[in-house]
Amino acid sequence: MKTKGIKYSLAFFLSLLCGLLLSGCWDRNEINDLAIVLATGIDYSHQKVELTAQIFIPRKSGSVSSTGSSESSPSGVTMIRTAEGSTIAEALNRLQRKVSREMFWGHCEVVVISEQAGKQGLREYLDFLLRYPQFREHAYVFTSGGEAKEVLALLDPLERSSAESLREMANLGLGSRVTLLELAQSIASPSGSAILSRMLISPADPGQKKLATTPYAKGISLFKDGYYVKTALEPVSVGVLLLSNELNNFIMPIELPQVKGAFSIRMNKVKTKLTPSIVNGTWGMGVHIESEGEVVLNTTNYDLANPVMLSKVEEAWLNRFKELAEQALQLAQKDLSADIYKFADQFRRYNAGIWKKNQENWLTIYRNMEVEITGNVIITDTGKSIEPQGIPHQASN
Amino acid sequence: MSKRQGAGGSSDGTVITGQPEIDGARLQSIFLDCSDMVFHTFQTNSRLSAVCIFCVGLCDAERIERQVLKPLAETEGGSPTVSSTQLVYTLQEASQAILDGFALLLMEGESNGTIYALSKNIGRTTEEPAAESTVRGPRDGFTESLESNLALLRMRLKIASFKSKTITMGTYTNTKVTLAFVEGLISPELVQEVERRLSRLKIDYVLESHSIEEGIVDERFSPFPQMLATERPDVVVSNLLEGRFVILVDGTPFSLVAPITLSSMLQSPEDYYQNIYISIAIRWMRYIFYIMSLLLPSFYVAITTFHQEMIPTVLLLSIARAREEIPFPALVEALIMEVSFEALREAGVRLPKQIGSAVSIVGALIIGQAATTAGIVSAPMIIIVALTGIASFMVPRYSASISTRLLRFPIMLLAGTLGLTGIILAIILLVIHLSSLRSFGTPYLSPIAPTSAGKLKDVWWRSIPWSKSR
User: Fold this and answer.
1) Which residues are listed as membrane-spanning (chain B) (predicted)?
2) What residues of A are in contact with residue B319 (Cβ under 8 Å)?
3) ipTM of the complex
4) Over the stretch B112-128, which tens digit does the pLDDT of each residue have?
């Protein structure tokens, strides 16, 4: 009697276990059945959204070379598929129809939005990318001057994929480093504007395949209220990056008045601090630039061991900064009347009550705002050499 | 020595009559067809008839001749010169004593027999334990002889409060089983409880201490060992000093120590023989690898089949590339590899040493090289299985490592069907089981759960011996 009970309970338990385990099996997704998407591109043409996916081809790279197919692309580990639709969701749906494996967006670390698509507004894309479960919110976002799918189609000879090279560039701090979440937050913030690095395609080396090349960062795409408005190119883009606190890895030439030649300074640290103030109803913004750098090139005949000379260079450097900042401010305040540098966020943080009252006519306030630029720059190092090098007949001293 | 009893022959309570011819004949009928029994009938110097009975393999015949027979036969009123003697009064006692390796002497006119402890030392001498080798630390190990094992303990515990009680167990084997402990350190209730469990245990034969372990542990159907089997006297002594008891069984070098906890299974005696920092680091490594030996393949299977977003991108691409040509799902792949690894391991253990190494070479070639080249198993899976194997070798107690070997498979199935949810489910079930498990009244997870802060020190870090003595 007792053994019978045990038998029944065992059978019950086993059937329960089978039900539990087998139902789990259906959700199984082997890696072999996935199309791993490394980057997503969004284009807009003929009133349609074009969604492009860069998909990893999981062939053993070793076996490709052993077959001797040198005709294949340099790395050849990615391919792209594009589909269009009236909305981005529809495009995604159609895109899946073109790929034999289940598309897996969980590793999409790069999103490229063409400026053309940006003109239609980022809202739809952002909502989708932040709502669709698989997308990463810390994927880096870039814009492209041309079509996004062309950037994704590149087969970078150096990196595993062009997605990887874009990601690495963002990590290096070339241009602005903006993630999907940051982009959405920045558009949702009081300033309502955003900046994104703009990618172009460098021409392939002679003799190489057309696609065997690298994207490169050139300029900054400016977004106002979620819409693309303008591209800032050098030197204005430097000022934009400076005011956005995103200037990294930059070498800047400095010229002194009445001096032949120039110094080049590599910046190790650039920090911009915004200090809002409201005095007697007058809104003002203080921009303070802190920077440290070292001289990497000196084509003048002056010796930097001389502290007077050094402070002159520092002064010229600061003036150059101010000049760049003013250009960038001119662009944002007067030309675009877009609050690119998030002054609004600063004011709201500074005094939320007053900000709320003046929120309506913020743009007028912004356009006429006095901005005071101050700074403190230090040359920490003059490089390996002290006196200028390569000047003829100088060695005897 | 406790009372002699048992089924050592078709004996009854017949008393010894004092006439060696009659008693000898009776014993001869008991030991009919026992070719190893020697019945030596002789006359002493004082013309008394006597018979000496012993088992030829167990007793030292030369010493019997020199110390018992010679003094009796040659000297007037001479008596045997043996230090350890005892008197027996019934034939049953006598026959049992002979079977235990004593020599029995029956003299005319004496209504008792005398037994002499003149047993021969059979078996091996003390060697380094094979299953628990050490770099630094004592190298002597237990042998099959209970007396010498007890001596090894006594050698280290030269105090009177080190007590040992011997009983015989096994209807057919009459094996001596000794319960040893240090009085004052162990709780008397625990000793009583063990004695109660041992006395209740009815068993036909005891060839290895595990048959006793199975009979007296709290939960015999648990995959986790609740007694520590060791063949190292220093391990036993350190456990005795922590208030545990040891059960030594005649005929096997493996002694049983209890009560134990999970954390003590993961501690090696060598921890205490090394620099404290190194011991702590190694101890932690062991904890981590113990968990790895249980969960690593399951984790790999779960993540690669259900949670691909959790793998770092670059790693995922490498895995995807390696897995591309593999015909099996990750779960099947893992099961194939784990089963063949276990088979290989089992084969290596059972085979003679010379062939064992050959097996491991062949196995390494087949499992490692050929399987990946043929595209049957992916290289990451090989790494996982190898790591798991190494992890299970890191557990210092063999009995603890085999429990994870076994549990790995159901967890793998859960992981392959439910993903990380399955692993969590398995962990929850395991924790429920472990926290309800007790080893002789001690919670198996103590001192972690229930927490006792003082004892936790020896789990997180390592206690220092001199700090224990107040």
Assistant:
1) 287-306, 382-399, 411-434
2) 31
3) 0.79
4) 888 888 887 777 888 88
